[in-house]
């Protein structure tokens, strides 16, 4: 059976429903790991399409979500986080992805943690091409006790970069998220919509499934598991409303394999059963999920492996 097709790429002008004065543009969300990019994108798109987790570096793919608000259509590109400590091929790839993603967007949302600007944030800022409108989003504002403490910090940020807008907010607050749409709307060019009004994402169901298994994997192994473990969907068959999925969790070391399997296979069973339940909700059908763990030593260092796993 075929995979769920990705949404076809419509050239500008092909959407049939653009209203008078339509705007449409690409919006990138960037920031160091764990700053709240996935949380913000999920809030903006209004549906869980990217996976949030306390584990840094959970977003490795470019993910596009689409949201139409009044006459404006926002096409979101969620770019990967950064891993500064380990300079592997994986990270070089991430930086390339970030830069190529940013070269063709209309506006960049640059997330930092309100009141903080470190080397890791500076590195992200330095990858944004010159001349792009950049909206500074000091996120997690709810964790700042006195808002007035933020003023000198905001002033210092003004000196770092000529940001187009300053929008301190909390990605977890709906009112803040709604306000953000209005603020970034003028940065979208006036043109016809790229997608139908109710389009949510152009990612396939298969991709979402692998991200979902990854989320369960990281949730249930806590901080023990290195971020560069990955999930590869090896079999995907559909029979009516039933999906038979076989997925491999690829890790670097035998020790990690044991960690995932757990004593008596308990942990792997739990990862599988939680992922299956959520996949059934996602696909609105029945799912047989077979999970297994593979050791692929040093895979994060090999450009070739990266290509075969689809990270180019
Ligand atoms: N208090 C608070 N926590 C937040 C907010 N936004 C996100 N978080 C939390 O911050 C953590 C990281 O959020 P993510 O959305 O996964 O961050 P990310 O930038 O996508 O992370 P990577 O995928 O590692 O790049 C999660 O535990 C979120 O619940 C916020 O506005 N306030």
Automatic annotation (TrEMBL):
<dbReference type="InterPro" id="IPR005662">
    <property type="entry name" value="GTPase_Era-like"/>
</dbReference>
<dbReference type="Pfam" id="PF07650">
    <property type="entry name" value="KH_2"/>
</dbReference>
<dbReference type="Pfam" id="PF01926">
    <property type="entry name" value="MMR_HSR1"/>
</dbReference>
<dbReference type="InterPro" id="IPR004044">
    <property type="entry name" value="KH_dom_type_2"/>
</dbReference>
<keyword id="KW-0690">Ribosome biogenesis</keyword>
<dbReference type="InterPro" id="IPR006073">
    <property type="entry name" value="GTP-bd"/>
</dbReference>
<feature type="binding site">
    <location>
        <begin position="139"/>
        <end position="142"/>
    </location>
    <ligand>
        <name>GTP</name>
    </ligand>
</feature>
<keyword id="KW-0472">Membrane</keyword>
<comment type="similarity">
    <text>Belongs to the TRAFAC class TrmE-Era-EngA-EngB-Septin-like GTPase superfamily. Era GTPase family.</text>
</comment>
<keyword id="KW-0963">Cytoplasm</keyword>
<protein>
    <recommendedName>
        <fullName>GTPase Era</fullName>
    </recommendedName>
</protein>
<dbReference type="InterPro" id="IPR009019">
    <property type="entry name" value="KH_sf_prok-type"/>
</dbReference>
<feature type="domain" description="Era-type G">
    <location>
        <begin position="23"/>
        <end position="190"/>
    </location>
</feature>
<dbReference type="InterPro" id="IPR030388">
    <property type="entry name" value="G_ERA_dom"/>
</dbReference>
<dbReference type="InterPro" id="IPR027417">
    <property type="entry name" value="P-loop_NTPase"/>
</dbReference>
<feature type="region of interest" description="G4">
    <location>
        <begin position="139"/>
        <end position="142"/>
    </location>
</feature>
<dbReference type="InterPro" id="IPR005225">
    <property type="entry name" value="Small_GTP-bd"/>
</dbReference>
<feature type="binding site">
    <location>
        <begin position="31"/>
        <end position="38"/>
    </location>
    <ligand>
        <name>GTP</name>
    </ligand>
</feature>
<feature type="region of interest" description="G5">
    <location>
        <begin position="169"/>
        <end position="171"/>
    </location>
</feature>
<keyword id="KW-0547">Nucleotide-binding</keyword>
<comment type="subunit">
    <text>Monomer.</text>
</comment>
<keyword id="KW-1003">Cell membrane</keyword>
<feature type="region of interest" description="G1">
    <location>
        <begin position="31"/>
        <end position="38"/>
    </location>
</feature>
<dbReference type="InterPro" id="IPR015946">
    <property type="entry name" value="KH_dom-like_a/b"/>
</dbReference>
<feature type="region of interest" description="G2">
    <location>
        <begin position="57"/>
        <end position="61"/>
    </location>
</feature>
<feature type="region of interest" description="G3">
    <location>
        <begin position="78"/>
        <end position="81"/>
    </location>
</feature>
<comment type="function">
    <text>An essential GTPase that binds both GDP and GTP, with rapid nucleotide exchange. Plays a role in 16S rRNA processing and 30S ribosomal subunit biogenesis and possibly also in cell cycle regulation and energy metabolism.</text>
</comment>
<keyword id="KW-0342">GTP-binding</keyword>
<keyword id="KW-0694">RNA-binding</keyword>
<feature type="domain" description="KH type-2">
    <location>
        <begin position="213"/>
        <end position="297"/>
    </location>
</feature>
<keyword id="KW-0699">rRNA-binding</keyword>
<feature type="binding site">
    <location>
        <begin position="78"/>
        <end position="82"/>
    </location>
    <ligand>
        <name>GTP</name>
    </ligand>
</feature>
């Amino acid at each position: 059976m075929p995979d769920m097709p990705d949404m076809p790429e419509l050239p500008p002008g092909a959407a049939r429903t653009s209203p008078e004065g339509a705007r449409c543009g690409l919006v990138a969300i960037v920031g160091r790991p764990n700053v709240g990019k996935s949380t913000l994108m999920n809030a903006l798109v209004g549906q869980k399409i990217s996976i949030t987790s306390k584990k840094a570096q959970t977003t490795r793919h470019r993910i596009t979500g689409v949201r139409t608000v009044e006459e404006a259509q926002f096409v979101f590109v969620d770019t990967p986080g950064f891993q500064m400590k380990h300079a592997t091929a994986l990270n070089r790839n991430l930086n390339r992805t970030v830069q190529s993603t940013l070269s063709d967007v209309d506006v960049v949302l640059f997330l930092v943690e309100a009141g903080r600007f470190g080397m890791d944030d500076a590195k992200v800022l330095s990858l944004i091409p010159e001349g792009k409108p950049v909206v500074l989003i000091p996120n997690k504002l709810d964790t700042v006790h006195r808002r007035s403490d933020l003023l000198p910090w905001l002033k210092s940020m003004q000196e770092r970069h000529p940001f187009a807008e300053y929008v301190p907010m909390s990605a977890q607050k709906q009112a803040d998220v709604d306000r953000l749409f209005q603020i970034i709307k003028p940065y979208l060019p006036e043109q016809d919509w790229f997608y139908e009004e109710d389009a949510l994402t152009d990612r396939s169901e298969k991709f979402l499934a692998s991200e979902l298994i990854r989320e369960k994997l990281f949730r249930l192994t806590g901080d023990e598991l290195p971020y560069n473990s990955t999930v590869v969907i090896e079999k995907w068959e559909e029979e009516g409303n039933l999906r038979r999925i076989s997925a491999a969790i690829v890790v670097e070391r035998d020790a990690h394999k044991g960690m995932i399997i757990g004593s008596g296979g308990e942990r792997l069973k739990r990862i599988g059963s939680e992922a299956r339940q959520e996949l059934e909700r996602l696909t609105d059908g029945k799912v047989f999920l077979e999970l297994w763990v593979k050791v692929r030593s040093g895979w994060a260092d090999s450009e070739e492996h990266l290509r075969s796993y689809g990270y180019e």
